[in-house]
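Human: If only I could read backbone structure tokens as easily as an amino acid sequence. Underneath my words sits a plain record pairing an amino acid chain with its backbone structure tokens. Take your time, and here it is.
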Amino acid sequence: MVFINFLWLLVWGGIFSGIYNIQTSIFLTNPLAFIQGSRALLPILAAYISIIWIFASKSRFPFFKTPIGLLFYYCLTGIVTSLFLSPDTLTSVYWASVYLSPLLVVWIALENTDSLSILRRLICTNYALFIVVTVCLLPQAFKIVKGKLPFDQFYDLPFNFGQIRSNGVGRFALVVIIISFVRLITQMKKQRFLWLIPIFPSLLLLAQAQSRTALLGLAVSSFLYVYLKGINWRFLFVGPISAYVIWLSGFKWRLNGDIEKLMYLTGREFTWQKGIEQIKHSPFLGWGFHADRILLQSEHMHNSYLHAMIHAGLIGTIFFIGAIFGTWLLIYRTNLLKRVRSIQGVDQTILMDSILILGFLTARSFFESTAAFYGVDLLLLVPSMTYIYLWIQENPYSS
């Protein structure tokens, strides 16, 4: 179990870094630049160790006919395309390899007899890292609220570890809100009230970031939560608080009270048009991982499905869509949204987390490239999606 947790931390090690940090001229001359560049290789190391373990243990492929397996097939399609069609093979293969790394680590987790327990540890590792990053972002957010710093689309991490756009900041804050609130409600011990501590500063950070995708996620996860737990007077404050944060951040601050700006896509539509033109030239296999940055002068697709198309074409996108919506179909067919009310203990907590986060990331996927490339969303989604699938397999539904 410690071995798998170590591999998962290696996978996380590449976040807020990339091959571009290795290719800069200061990589070997500046200590901080060297650390940033070295971190970019940690997911590759995790993938390499995982492959060695898989071959040495003669581990069987665990992903046949599973939602997480469809992500694996999407990745494999992108790897083939990256090798043979990408205009920048080295860059594409790098990003394809780091995308593969969390899937390989989960493969190892599924080979253990106590897979659910291991997945819980990986999920809790994710949550701990989300809380740490959120805490690191709060000082800058407080300075902006007090007027000591101007509002910017970028937030700086300490020690020059990178920058996060406001959309990413909203994502971190919302996930902390979700996991804190779920534990506040589901846990019975008095210590559960300690989860109030991260909720309020995270709400402030969420509002201050003015991320429309995070605010949409707040609305979706709030609705899902009430549906999961059923109508209860204790949850009456969930709607008003969520509505107030959405109104304050989205309508008053972001839109300046102008509802007509709600549909403004901040230039995404032009990027989508340019991306579609490139997809037309290789519709079935795409152009390999990182193709949007390579072909569109560093522009980002900001849509998971178009991102999957430009990476792996129609073939890969079918796998990708199947992974996301196949998980929802599985949840629906097994009546998990209602069953979770009667589940006891840590399984209920983790399942509720995973469903709410899946709801948020699904809503986010239409305006951001959720899980279509290596990034925080992917590392959040993979163990949660796997946990939902595996728990359902071990606890089949009988109507």
Remarks:
- Residues 135 and 329 are 36 Å apart (CA to CA).
